[in-house]
Structures are given as C-alpha cells and as structure tokens.
Specification:
Elements lengths: L11 E4 L17 E2 L10 E4 L2 E4 L3 E7 L2 E7 L4 H7 L9 E4 L10 E5 L2 E7 L2 E7 L4 H7 L4 E4 L15 E7 L2 E7 L5 H7 L9 E6 H4 L14 E6 L1 E12 L3 E10 L3 E5 L4 E12 L2 E14 L4 E8 L21 H11 L6 E2 L4 E2 L6 H6 L11 H15 L5 H6 L4
Parallel strand pairs: 5-8, 12-15, 17-21
Antiparallel strand pairs: 1-7, 2-4, 3-4, 5-6, 7-8, 9-10, 9-11, 11-14, 12-13, 14-15, 16-19, 18-21, 19-20, 22-23
C-alpha cells in the first residue's frame, strides 16, 4: 500500500509581481511534488539519493470574474496553473488558494481582481490599488488616518459595506445611525435614514483617526470607529446690483424767479449687474468666478435751472393772491424750504409745474394726502406732507437741495 502525500491545509493570498505575470517554463510539461514515502509504491516512483519523487496529474478549478475554468495540469504552483488558464492579470490582482503554495487535485483557485480607488491618507488625496470588498473594510483595517470618498450617485468605485450593517453618519453637527446593505447606494441609505443630501454634497467613509483631522467631523471618535461624513456643498449664482447715482448740475436761469427751478436735462442713475458663481463648503466660500458684468444703464447727469430773477413786490406767481408769508422753519426743513422756494409758501415754479415751499407737483401732493394746490396750504401743512413724502421715498425727492443742505 502506498501512503498519500500529507499537505497542510491553509488559506493564502498571493500578490502578483509588478510585471503582472508569473515566471515558469511553458515547454516543461511535468512538475513534481516531493513527499515522504512509506511502504510499497503503487504509483511510478523514481528514487534519487534516497528521496521519493512522485509525478501526479490533477484537475484544478480557477474562478475569475464570476466565471470558472477547469485546468488539467501536472503543475502544483498556483501562479503556474493560472498562467495555463490564459487569464490577463493585473500586477495587483491576488491568487487565493485554500491549502497553500502546492495545489492538490480537485482544489479551487480564486482570482481576486484589484481596482484602483481614490483615498485620503493623513488628510492628503492619493491613488491606491486594492482587492478589498468594501470601503468599510479598508478604513476599519487601516492603522493610520484614512478615508474613502463616495463617488457621485450610481457611480460607486467600491461598495461601502460587504455585509448589511449600521453605520454612524455625521452631518450638520449631529450623528445619525443608518442601515446600509451591500451594493446599496450610500446616498440612498442616508436619505432613507431621514438625511437629505444633494448631488454636490461630499460623502466619505472614514476611520476615527481621519475624523480627528477634519473640521467637520467629530473629534472624540475612537481611531478604529468607522464613520460616514457628509460635507455640505452648494453652488449658487449671486447677483450684485451696483448703482451709480446720477450727478445733478445746477445752472442759474434769469428767466425763472428766485426759488423756482426747472429740470433742463433729465438724468439717470447708472446700473451694473454682476453675476458670480460661488461655491461654498459648510457655508464658507471656497471658490468664486465672475460670470457676467452687464451695464444696464449708463449714468447721465441731470441739469437743473435755478431761478435768479427778483419777484414782484406782491409775490411771485402766487395762486392764492396777496403777499406771501416767508417761512423760516427751524432745522433741515427750514433749510430745505429756503433752498427749494426761497422760503415762500406761495411759490409757483417751473412754469406752473411746482408749488409751495417744497415745490410739490400736484400729483405728488395728492399722493401724500394733500388737497387743492400745495401753495394754497399753510406752511405747517406743507411741511407735514413733505415729511410724509421723505419717509416714503427718501431725500432723493429733492436731489439738488438735499445734497446742498447736507441731508444726504
């Protein structure tokens, strides 16, 4: 009776060399396994220097990329058998056996494909090759700060987990426990857990050591903890309206009475609209670029004629008749009345377009609650309506005089 070879069972992962191929002689069809022999041989045995050499033939199954191939071989080394399968292997692929270096008849060899992923190590982005089944397994096993970014929706470079489990998600300054299954989009799992995420938000799977390097992640996590960190990112087009107020130029006009004024050339404010693309991370601007700078209108100066002609003794063009009382109110309103109408409450300027102390138009006077003509009202009534107009529309209602008296 011959004694069967005794081979210790074990599992071993073999990484290919950098050239991505194995080194053996394709023309040599026979391989040998050296074993101890006890008793009579029933197989062909050649005794050389007291050592038994047994030539054995075997059938081995090679699993790869979801398929399998049966290899009939005399070889025993995994790399030699895989080479006979004519598989294109990458230098970082792994060959996995269940018994060790020597493969026996009926065994299975599995090819574990490597894939390149983007990782963050010690806060820096790097490219790495891995045969790991999930981002979770990578960061959990690391002995340094690492993170694996999650690619955009439905473009995962590597599954987040290789078995159904619960992960802690850090977002918006708080933590939420989320269940996730193998192959499930982490964004879907996060939203199923009640956390809204946008396509721009950055999601990484990280260990606790990496979390301590980040400003947005908790700093109390154990270095071996696995966290999913959500960093909020937004992009918006911000619009900025820049207004250049029209300049007002005054010129004397002896065809108008003192206190009268007339707009000779209409002016307009200059307006520019700037649109800027702004990206913010956790509310802080990290990038901006000017998209457009459009001139909506060009500033055009306004020319106002100011009367210099002396009024007749009975008052200038009063609609109320008789001499007009001079208004000398205190403060800004007295100064404004003096500038606009010379302090004459009965003043009529602009060829009948403007009335009273503050040179109201009839329509503006009515819009602030006045009745009749402004020049027919008392100085106190005119001042009351002027204050209402200023509160509603600002000092720009009297552009030249409000600047002159320092009201704006």
């Amino acid at each position: 009776m011959s004694q069967e070879p005794q081979v210790k069972s074990s599992e071993e992962e073999i990484t290919l060399d950098n050239a991505g191929h194995t080194d053996f002689n394709h023309t040599k069809r026979f391989r040998t396994i050296v074993v101890g022999v006890a008793g009579a041989l029933s197989a062909a045995v050649i005794a050389i220097a007291g050592v038994g050499i047994v030539i054995t033939h075997k059938t081995v199954t090679v699993n790869y990329d979801g398929a399998s191939k049966k290899i009939s071989t005399w070889d025993s080394m995994p790399s030699q058998i895989v080479a006979q399968a004519n598989l294109a292997l990458h230098p970082h692929d792994k060959i996995i056996t269940s018994r060790g270096q020597a493969v026996a008849d009926g065994e299975t060899i599995t090819i574990k494909r490597a894939h390149r992923i983007t990782m963050i190590e010690n806060g820096k982005q790097v490219e790495r090759w891995t045969t790991a089944d999930s981002a979770h397994s990578i960061v959990a096993a690391a002995n340094k700060p690492v993170a694996v970014p999650v690619a955009p929706v439905d473009e995962r470079e590597i599954p987040v987990v290789d078995k159904r489990q619960s992960l802690t998600v850090f977002h918006d300054g708080e933590t939420t426990s989320v269940n996730i299954a193998p192959g499930q989009s982490v964004r879907t799992a996060i939203e199923d857990g009640g956390i809204k995420v946008s396509p721009l938000d950055r999601i990484v799977v990280m260990n606790g050591a990496q979390a301590k390097l980040g400003a947005s992640a908790p700093t109390t996590s154990d270095s071996k903890d696995v966290l999913v960190n959500v960093t909020r990112v937004s992009r918006d087009v911000e619009e900025d309206k820049i207004v250049t107020e029209k300049e007002v130029t005054e010129k004397d006009d002896d065809s108008l009475y003192k206190g009268e004024k007339k707009v000779v050339e209409e002016g307009q404010d200059g307006v520019r609209i700037k649109r800027t693309l702004v990206e913010k991370v956790e509310g802080d601007v990290v990038y901006s670029t000017l998209l457009t700078d459009e001139t909506v209108s060009t500033m055009k100066p306004e020319v106002v004629a100011i009367g210099t002609k002396e009024r007749p003794a009975r008052g200038g063009g009063s609609s109320g008749g008789g001499s007009a009382a001079h208004y000398s109110g205190d403060g800004v309103w007295g100064a404004l009345a003096q500038c606009e109408s010379g302090g004459n409450p009965r003043s009529v300027g602009g060829g009948g377009a403007f009335y009273g102390l503050y040179q109201f138009t009839p329509s503006t006077w009515r819009s602030v609650g006045g009745s009749g003509l402004p020049s027919d009202a008392s100085p106190e009534e005119q001042t009351k309506r002027a204050k209402i107009l200023q509160q509603r529309s600002g000092w720009g209602q009297w552009p030249a005089c409000s600047r002159k008296i320092g009201a704006r």
